[in-house]
Description:
protein transport, transport, Sec translocon accessory complex subunit YajC, translocation, transmembrane
Amino acid sequence: MFLTLLLQAADGGGYMQLLFPVAIGLVVYFFMIRPQQKRTADAKNFRQALAKGSRIVTIGGLHGLVVDLTDDTVVVEVDRGTKLRFDRSAIAREVGTKAAAGTAGDTIAS
Length: 110
């Protein structure tokens, strides 16, 4: 049975049959894999560029001010006298710098 199926297969169009899977592979690479690699690289560069005084948000949604940095960890002050230590990988984004956030916080509190 298998041999008869192979014998019935159409001959020709070798390049056209190969073109479709290659095109699908290129589309997957440019629309899925490449953007994810770029986001990962951007996040790594952001975490390495953290500085003291930055206002950040962790992955869990905790807002705070960076007060100390090491190679692997970040100490974040979330309230006066309350400091928490996080891995650098737990920092999601930066809200603003200390000076910019201080003036915005003063107008909200007033």
